[in-house]
TrEMBL record, chain A:
This is Pescadillo homolog. Belongs to the pescadillo family. Residues 321-414 form the BRCT domain. Required for maturation of ribosomal RNAs and formation of the large ribosomal subunit. It comes from Drosophila navojoa (Fruit fly). It comes from the Eukaryota. GO terms for cellular component: nucleoplasm; PeBoW complex; preribosome, large subunit precursor. Keywords: Nucleus, Phosphoprotein, Ribosome biogenesis, rRNA processing.
From TrEMBL, chain B:
Residues 9-21 have a biased composition (Basic residues). It comes from the Eukaryota. Its main location: nucleus. This is Ribosome biogenesis protein NOP53. Belongs to the NOP53 family.
């Protein structure tokens, strides 16, 4: 038997150095890099480097031998070799100034076909969606680039086109979920086919040149090359899923014969498409109802209402509400506000939007339109203002989306100091203890109720207290202050705010409704009596109140838990225990923190009470002294 | 003629021998013959017409300069036969003595493409012609597309549509189930339309870490105070650790060695380099004074090896000792075994403890391996370093969208992310160092100096100033 030599089997044969791979594929380093990126073959780290490198301990770039063998069969390797030939031949033509031949050659430049690679790397559509994060961020970034060395203009134009198409899809499908303005750029998160797709759009600032020391532009350009093809196919599939014509088009009704369209139809259409303000042409004739058939929650309820199902139900309801958040609202975007992100957000939640026609083509109505409800402004003051609309800062739109409800606009008025813009990616409903201050930031209604409850408790205390007259005075003073503030605001904005007006209106209506209903009740008394009699005739007996035995319930719960613990497979037992332990510790921690907080709150309250009592006593004493003085 | 005169003087010369004959002047005969041959070649004057010999000069005296440009002249010259070939031209009037000559046509090297194209005779010519036609058709199409400026990658199909390879090849799909899938695969392969399975490593995930890392809430353009403080604290912590590391390195390397002044260093170097070289003043023969060196005897420091033989008795004794030692050891081992029998319980505990320890180590290793799956791997020569956190300093926070100060570069960010996810090996951009070029002014180039004119102007100006100075009356 032959004695096996060293490094003929095992890890040494599993890995291949880059240099060896180049030799095997007969490609140059640049071509190899390109091939690897396009095919998704990445370098690997071996377990034992010295074994994998046949005894050498320097750190080399290694690939799996199988990967490289797999690359050998790739048809684009031939195209890459054709490039080399092309470069040589066209170089020769250029050198001898044979321009006729050169032109012919340039026209037949060997194109790389990547369709099959997309399919290969993402066997299912969902796989492609999972990898869309990087793709979108890079393409959005590249769409802002001018033509640079190693980044041709066509590439950035293509990026722009594809991203606009994708945004049209997001708007049409109303799949946007979260938005966030960071110092990096705008974060968007959409939910497409159950996958969360997040991308970053850079801030709309002029292009800043970048040093080539930091980033390898060539590599990034290759990534973009692949991602453009991938996004093209993804867009195609997404559009067809919504019954939209894929290269996006307008319905023919939109294209009336006017000067612009007659001059250059294609550019007119592409500009309107880039404006993101029009609905696209559908392939099916019937315009479907906006309401999608949601998941039938009743069917899911077979399991009984477990916590998860309830949560899912709530989530579905919330999302249904979110999708029509801005329905019926009409926005106008001022010139200084970045147009694109706001248009995407407003349109994908059902709002209508327009802008100054000098900023970008595709505006639908003017600033002077009286039906506009909100004008988005980002400057300290405006000279001409309309009473009929709210002047808000752009953050309002973002915060509304993140909190999934229309927030009161008064905090976001023109020139107002804005409340902090919170990240939606931090889960506000996470299981751990959240201090009330943070809760209030997420839901401003909470803090108000908190304050109210404080007031109530104070009132109660006041009732208990003997000298309630002083308290009344204090209350009066508070009311006075509130009134003064209101009048100050009134003066500041030169008119009553839309919201306040609305509130008043609704209040009035409520009053009216109540009165009307009272009247009606008297009239309809006879009818109802008859109905009740009829009802009594039917043989339905009143049911008994079902008493819930709390102890039994708890016991059942515990039993269920035990059963659950038993059902766990032996190999998962440890994990299960760990999870339970973690949950318990978390609960305990939360309870402790809450207790601590409660104690602190009580202490402060006590201190406050004491202080107040003393103040009251002092005031009473002073009043007494004054009255005595007056009597004297 | 003057050269021939002395020859005519001597009328008769002896023609006795060969040498004498050589002196004979035959020039006149040769001249005559030459003239005759020339006449034969170009004809006599009598044969020629007057028009051939003379030209009436009708042009004006001065010829107008030619209107041709240099380029045109060159072109005309290029049409003319080359000067160098003029010598090869046959200018003789003598007719070819051989009336009928066999014309030999030289065989052309290579193929006559023109002929092949114009009247193809062979099938391969026809094939080539049709191929060429197709090529130009394609070329025309490409050129037309390029002209219209609509060169975009075509996306006109849904690549993710489920499709069966059997649909493409007729006869492979049957409802009755006669052809199994395996058979269909086999047939497709033999037809030449092999169905290839993609390699599993194509779907290899480079890292287990989450793809999307949520931005820190403090990175908001208008962050809450708490979030911003947290982010700042994080940045500070990171910076501090860097500083600490730097200080450690400095302490361990630079600060570890004591310093000397440059003069001291030079002096030390000189001393070190001149070690062993004698100075002039020193006496040379220190070694010569040594008495040993004068002897010719060779001697080493080590003592010479002696082959000491052991006696047989000594060997026997040694063997006996060895045997005794062995026995002693065995006895000791046996004794220990019996002793261990008693403390078997504690041994079991020891073994268990050891096993537990091993288990712990195993567990720890496993956890470490698992953790490593989430981390960035070492793919190349350079280690990946986390980029700095992006943070707006408190004074940069504007609080409105209009005045946002953007931090971080998205492109760099993406690039680093790809590196972090093990998709790219960490590299450092290398700039080629240019060799240092020593520059000096050409000798032909002179610095602009001072001319006489300048000097005179300066002198005049100085004089004027002095005069003005003397004219003014100082108070």
């Amino acid at each position: 038997m032959r004695r096996p030599k060293k490094y003929e089997s095992g890890e040494a044969t599993q890995y291949i150095s880059r240099r060896a791979a180049l030799r095997k594929l007969q490609l140059s380093l640049n071509d190899f890099r390109r091939l690897c990126i396009l095919k998704g073959v990445y370098p690997r780290e071996p377990k034992h480097r010295r074994r994998a490198q046949k005894g050498s301990s320097e750190i080399k770039i290694l690939y799996h031998t199988k990967d490289i063998r797999f690359l050998l069969h790739e048809p684009i390797v031939w195209t890459l070799r054709d490039y080399k030939i092309f470069a040589k031949k066209s170089g020769r033509d250029r050198a001898i100034k044979d321009f006729r031949n050169l032109k012919r050659r340039l026209a037949l430049f060997p194109e790389i076909k990547l369709d099959h690679i997309v399919k290969e790397r993402y066997p299912t559509f969902i796989d492609a969606l999972k990898d869309l994060d990087d793709c979108l961020t890079l393409l959005f970034l590249f769409s802002t680039f001018p033509s640079l060395h190693l980044i041709p203009r066509e590439q950035s134009n293509l990026c722009r086109r594809l991203t606009i198409e994708f945004l049209h899809y997001v708007i049409a499908s109303k799949s946007l979920r979260k938005v966030f303005i960071s110092i990096k750029g705008y974060y968007f998160q959409a939910e497409i086919k159950g996958q969360k797709v997040t991308w970053i759009v850079p801030h709309y600032y002029p292009f800043k040149p970048q040093s080539r020391q930091e980033v390898d532009f060539k590599v990034m350009s290759i990534f973009v090359e692949f991602y453009t093809i991938m996004l093209g196919f993804t867009n195609y599939r997404l559009y067809h899923g919504l019954n939209l014509a894929y290269p996006p088009q307008f319905p023919s009704s939109m294209l009336q014969d006017n000067e612009d369209t007659l001059k250059d139809e294609t550019s007119f259409v592409s500009e309107r498409i880039a404006a993101l303000n029009f609905e696209l042409l559908r392939t099916d004739k019937v315009q479907e109802d906006e309401e999608e058939p949601d998941i039938d929650m009743e069917l899911l309820e077979q399991d009984g209402d477990s916590k998860r199902i309830i949560k899912m139900k709530q989530e579905a309801q919330e999302i249904a509400r979110l999708r029509n958040l801005f329905k019926g609202l009409k926005f106008f975007i001022n010139r200084e506000v970045p147009r694109e992100p706001l248009v995407i957000i407003i349109r994908s939640f059902g709002g209508k939007v327009s802008w100054d026609s000098s900023v970008f083509s595709g505006s639908t109505y003017d600033e002077s339109d009286e039906t506009i409800t909100h004008q988005i402004v980002d400057r300290p003051s405006l000279s001409t203002q309309y009473i009929s609309r709210d002047y808000i800062q752009p953050q309002w739109v973002f915060d509304c989306v993140n909190q999934r409800q229309l927030l009161p606009t008064n905090k976001y008025f023109l020139g107002e100091q804005l409340p902090p813009h919170l990240s939606p990616f931090v889960d506000a409903k996470r299981d751990t203890y959240i201090p009330p201050e943070e809760k209030a930031l997420h839901d401003p209604s909470l803090i108000e109720t908190h304050a109210q409850s404080d007031d109530e408790s104070e009132e109660e205390e006041a009732a208990q207290n003997e000298d309630d007259t002083v308290d009344q005075e204090l209350l009066d003073a508070q009311l006075q202050r509130a009134y003064q503030q209101e009048t100050a605001e009134y003066k500041k904005y030169g008119g009553p705010d839309g919201v306040n007006e609305d509130e008043e209106d609704t209040d009035d209506e409520d009053f009216d409704d109540e009165q009307e209903s009272d009247d009606e009740e008297e009239e309809l008394d006879e009818k109802t009596k008859r109905l009740q009699e009829e009802k009594k005739k039917m043989s339905v007996q009143s049911g008994k109140v079902h008493k819930v035995n709390k102890r039994q319930l708890h016991k059942a719960e515990v039993d269920e838990h035990r059963l659950q613990a038993r059902m766990v497979k032996p190999r998962h037992r440890n994990l299960f225990r760990k999870l339970i332990r973690e949950k318990q510790s978390k609960e305990k921690e939360e309870w402790l923190l809450r207790k601590k907080r409660r104690n602190i709150d009580n202490d402060t309250k006590e201190a406050k009470k004491l202080a107040k009592r003393e103040a009251k006593k002092a005031a009473a004493a002073a009043a007494n002294a004054a009255s005595q003085l007056g009597a004297k | 003629m003057a050269a021939q005169e002395p020859a005519t003087k001597r009328k008769r010369i002896s023609k006795k021998n060969k040498a004498a004959w050589r002196k004979t002047d035959i020039q006149d005969v040769e001249q005559f013959l030459e003239d005759q041959r020339q006449e034969e070649r170009i004809g006599t004057f009598t044969d020629k017409q007057n028009e051939d010999l003379f030209v009436v000069d009708a042009s004006p005296l001065k010829t107008a300069p030619s209107q041709l440009t240099i380029k045109q002249k060159r072109k005309l010259n290029a049409l003319k036969p080359m000067r160098s070939h003029q010598a090869l031209e046959n200018t003789s009037k003598v007719q070819d003595p051989i009336v009928k000559r066999n014309h030999v046509r030289q065989k052309k090297s290579g193929r006559n493409i023109e002929l092949e194209v114009c009247n193809p005779t062979k099938p391969r010519h026809r094939q080539a012609n049709s191929d060429r036609g197709l090529y130009y058709e394609k070329l025309d199409k490409e050129l037309a597309v390029r002209e219209s400026g609509k060169k975009v990658p075509k996306v006109d199909k849904d690549i993710w549509q489920e499709e069966d390879f059997r649909d493409k090849i007729p006869g492979l799909k049957d409802e009755k189930g006669w052809i199994s899938r395996d058979l269909a695969l086999h047939v497709a392969g033999n037809i030449g339309r092999k169905v290839v399975k993609t390699h599993a490593s194509l779907h290899h995930k480079t890292t287990k870490a989450k793809k999307f890392e949520a931005p820190h809430p403090g990175m908001s353009y208008n962050p809450s105070l708490k979030a911003h403080q947290e982010l700042l604290a994080e940045v500070v912590e990171r910076e501090e650790s860097i500083i600490k590391k730097e200080q450690h390195l400095k302490r361990v390397t630079t600060a570890m060695f004591n310093k000397v002044t440059p003069e001291e260093r030079d002096k030390r170097r000189l001393n070190e380099m001149s070690e062993g070289i004698k100075e002039d003043g020193e006496p040379e023969s220190e070694d010569e004074a040594d008495p040993k060196s004068t002897d010719n005897n060779y001697s080493t420091v080590n003592a010479p090896v002696e082959n000491k033989k052991k006696s047989k008795a000594a060997r026997n004794k040694e063997l006996k000792q060895k045997e005794l030692q062995r026995l002693h050891e065995a006895k000791k081992a046996l004794k220990k075994q019996t002793a261990d029998l008693i403390r078997i319980k504690s041994i079991r505990a020891e073994v268990q403890e050891e096993a537990e320890e091993l288990k712990e180590i195993k567990k720890r290793r496993k956890a470490a391996a698992e953790r490593k799956k989430f981390e960035t791997k070492r793919l190349g020569r350079h280690k990946f370093e986390e980029p700095d956190l992006d943070v707006n300093m408190p004074e940069d926070l504007a609080g409105n969208l209009r005045n946002v100060k953007t931090e971080s570069n998205l492109l760099t960010d993406r690039f680093k992310l790809l590196q972090k996810r093990n998709m790219l090996p960490t590299t450092v951009a290398v700039t080629r160092k240019r060799s240092k070029v020593k520059r000096f002014p050409r000798s032909s180039h002179k610095e602009p100096g001072v001319s006489f004119q300048d000097l005179r102007d300066r002198r005049k100006a100085a004089a004027a100033a002095a005069k003005a100075n003397s004219d003014t009356i100082k108070i």
